[in-house]
Amino acid sequence: xxxxxxxxxxxxxxxxxxxxxxxxxxxxxxxxxxxxxxxxxxxxxxxxxxxxxxxxxxxxxxxxxxxxxxxxxxxxxxxxxxxxxxxxxxxxxxxxxxxxxxxxxxxxxxxxxxxxxxxxxxxxxxxxxxxxxxxxxxxxxxxxxxxxxxxxxxxxxxxxxxxxxxxxxxxxxxxxxxxxxxxxxxxxxxxxxxxxxxxxxxxxxxxxxxxxxxxxxxxxxxxxxxxxxxxxxxxxxxxxxxxxxxxxxxxxxxxxxxxxxxxxxxxxxxxxxxxxxxxxxxxxxxxxxxxxxxxxxxxxxxxxxxxxxxxxxxxxxxxxxxxxxxxxxxxxxxxxxxxxxxxxxxxxxxxxxxxxxxxxxxxxxxxxxxxxxxxxxxxxxxxxxxxxxxxxx
Length: 393
Ligand code: TTP
Description:
Blueprint lengths: L1 E6 L19 E2 L2 E2 H11 L4 E6 L3 H8 L2 E2 L2 E7 L6 H7 L8 E5 L2 E3 L1 H9 L3 E6 L7 E6 L2 E7 L8 E9 L19 H11 L3 E4 L3 E3 L3 H13 L4 E2 L2 E2 L4 E3 L2 E3 L4 E2 L4 E3 L2 E3 L4 E2 L4 E3 L2 E3 L4 E4 L2 E3 L2 E2 L4 E4 L2 E3 L2 E2 L4 E2 L4 E2 L10 E4 L2 E4 L7 E3 L4 E2 L4 E2 L3 E3 L10 E2 L4
Parallel strand pairs: 1-4, 1-7, 4-6, 9-13, 15-18, 16-19, 17-20, 18-21, 19-22, 20-23, 21-24, 22-25, 23-26, 24-27, 25-28, 26-29, 27-30, 28-31, 30-35, 31-36, 32-37, 35-38, 37-39
Antiparallel strand pairs: 2-3, 5-6, 7-12, 8-14, 9-12, 10-11, 33-34
Helix pairs in contact: 1-4, 3-5
The structure holds thymidine-5'-triphosphate.
The site of thymidine-5'-triphosphate has 23 residues, from strand 1 and helix 3.
């Protein structure tokens, strides 16, 4: 079965991280976010992957190329992001026979994708506490009888998890009218499939939709937690590595470093001397973490440097960031309340008591900058030496 993976979105809620890197290509443990969905589809037996691309398409194409793990990869271009049904429709000419659709920004429990493929027509569902925030599936005698978006009175607690195994006929039903929010939605295609076929709900044990920056952190917490200890880089005898720590070939851990997993140190990265890295942390390719630096529960994207006497906690740093000596991140409010963050101009709760900062590509902080919880620094922003930064820039 072919698997269509949607990766054309603009990722507006995760800005500035998606300013140049499309959301599906943001790092989650040892691969880009969308590669987790692609790999789940391959593990479930997909014989071809069709990636729907649009925003920053080149980034996606240059990573995946024409095959992944022996499975052919092809591309369909969605020129305007008019919705998920429109995205699948862009791949129309690639479709023949039954086909699966997965979101390139979702993390799925891989076993469930295997069951999804086996039991088609099928849709993945996840049990949630507050179904009224989701598309909710109703069921009747073990099959799906309907789907309703964000209902005030949800019929079940089964949220649609955005993974579908459709019958061939569904390819003829992709041109659905625009919804209230002006998008052509794949859920309207699902509604038609439910009318005409017996659709099986496949329950996921774990699922995640990555839309906002702290969800990228949570995605890393999940996938870093799945790693098994593997030390293949150059690690000093006086470094102390505890738990599930992966040091890739070509990475260096210098004397006096303490690492508590889950931590992944990617190739080309250097840690130490005398640094303390705590899980769940991703130290990306060619990152440099220097003397007297503590990094906790954070993502440092490729090429970033935090070289001297700094603290970074519960934060996401984009590519090629440079933190000046003594830059300190606060990740906890004095009133112990949940940290807030601005998404598309609106200040909202992250639901996290511990959350630090989100930093765009090529940001430079001056020495001794103090960065407050929930702060966003846009691409190429700078801070002055000694500055206490409380407002986004
Ligand atoms: P969304 O998360 O709704 O959109 P987005 O990824 O652009 O993010 P934001 O809302 O922050 O701007 O998209 C769900 C999935 O569908 C995701 O994998 C992107 C994909 N998608 C497309 O491929 N084309 C589209 O037109 C839309 C709306 C989404």
